[in-house]
Design a protein that fits this description.
There is one protein chain. The chain has one domain. The protein is built from ten helices and no strands. Helix 2 packs across helix 4 and helix 5 crosses helix 10. It is an all-alpha fold. The longest helix is centred in the middle third of the chain and has 48 residues.
């Protein structure tokens, strides 16, 4: 067997195993309780707390563990201002790591498959040219799964710079969740319904809805033009 093909198969198998183990582990463990215990530990670290928080958030992102508990926890531990900053930095770093894993473990295989289908290759190239806009809009919308998108963008031709720039779309949702967490005031209260500013909630929801509609229409138009050119 060709060495390159063998290496490709090994990469695909490793990626599948990694994703499967992450999902099964997340379901088998009481993730919310585990994350709460991690936040309690982080709080005890003093000046090192932000670094530990960012590392844990990175691991959760790569392992497909929902980050809502940690985002709320950021508000509890650090307040609205610093909590928003730490969560945004952590989410961006974690998403970038997942993006790079997706790119270097499976991008070669995806590229080979696209070579067989020129139309899809044209769409991929066209979407990549508008990369940061598409990443930004999908980050604004809560309907696009955050953890899955990290890996999905990695197998497209979207550049790393555009991907990181598009991560700015996470800011509104990040601020809202951190704000809710800051109202809780207690790690044990995370996950329970917290009263918050209705105007803020509806603003984020409306922004997310508009972003969903815009990115759907936008990508459809880009794909149509690419197919017409092909």
């Amino acid at each position: 067997m060709n060495k390159k093909l063998l290496a490709l198969i090994v990469k695909i198998i490793l990626l599948c195993i990694f994703i499967t183990v992450a999902i099964v582990t997340a379901k088998a463990l009481n993730i919310q309780s585990l994350l709460q215990q991690s936040l309690i530990w982080v709080r005890s670290l003093g000046v090192l707390a932000p670094i530990a928080f960012i590392i844990i958030y990175n691991l959760a992102t790569v392992l497909f563990i929902p980050g809502s508990v940690l985002t709320l926890g950021g508000g509890v531990l650090f307040g609205l201002f610093w909590g928003s900053i730490y969560v945004f930095v952590a989410a961006t770093l974690g998403a970038t790591i997942a993006f790079l894993i997706g790119r270097y473990l499976s991008r070669d295989w995806v590229s080979r498959q696209l070579e067989k289908y020129p139309k899809f290759q044209a769409i991929d190239s066209s979407v990549a040219r508008e990369g940061w806009k598409i990443v930004f809009l999908t980050r604004l919308s809560p309907l696009f799964p955050f953890n899955l998108l990290n890996y999905a963008f990695g197998v497209t031709q979207v550049s790393l710079n555009d991907y990181v720039l598009g991560s700015l779309g996470m800011i509104p949702g990040t601020i809202m969740y951190v704000y809710i967490g800051s109202l809780a005031g207690d790690i044990a209260m995370i996950g329970m319904n917290q009263s918050t500013n209705p105007a803020l909630q509806w603003t984020v929801r409306i922004i997310g809805f508009i972003a969903t509609v815009v990115v759907t229409i936008y990508v459809t138009r880009i794909a149509r033009k690419a197919l017409e050119n092909t």
